[in-house]
Amino acid sequence: MEESLNIFDRATRYILDLVDSSNSYDSIISSIHPYISYIAIALPIFLLIYHADDIKNIFASTIVLILTYITGYDAFLKYAQTIPSEANNMLATHKFLALIVVLIYMIVLLLKILNTLTKKLSCEKFCSIVLSFAVLLILIITYYGTSMVFDYGVGVVVR
Asked: For residues 123 and 128, what is the distance between their CA atoms, to the nearest angstrom?
């Protein structure tokens, strides 16, 4: 299975290995995914409405989105065996769109840093449009994640 992982999955697995050296993936990381997801949904929307062009806000959103992706990947590893086959396509779409949003925010952050350093790159409107598109993707990701939990019971633990 290791050979079939893409570079982002390998990087995420490496980060999880650093955090949880026992490789049990049964840690608190996956259990905080729902809570950090709420922040990852609200923060970019709030910051886009009020201060989309501020590099500190884009940096904060990028960090929260990366943490959400990592905790979601950990949750996937923890609950992979319990995911119903009907939810597999939904999960793949959820994971793919999450990766796209993280990459979009990283690229916009890089553009903002380059703009700050060189003062030659004018990308304000472009960044605003791209971030608006990313927020739309975040809402679609939220739909898929909510549907997986409430319709298919993915990640629901009965005690």
From this structure: 8
* Token digits of residue 60: 């904060």
For residue 85, what is the DSSP state?
G
| The residue to which tokens 């009907």 are assigned | 86
The count of domains in the chain is: 1
Q: Give residue 68's domain range.
A: 2-20+30-152
Say which amino acid occupies 89. N
Query: What is the number of other CB atoms lying within 10 angstroms of the CB of residue 27?
Result: 15
Evaluate whether residue 148 is within a structural domain. yes
Report if residue 157 sits inside a domain. no
* Cα–Cα distance measured from residue 79 to residue 61, given in angstroms and rounded to the nearest whole number: 26
159: in domain: no
pLDDT in tens, 39-97: 888 888 888 777 666 788 888 889 999 989 888 888 887 777 888 888 888 988 998 99
- The closest alpha carbon to 52, from 128, 122, 108, 125, belongs to 128
Q: What tens digit of pLDDT does each residue of 106-157 get?
A: 999 998 888 888 877 678 788 888 988 999 999 999 999 888 888 888 777 6
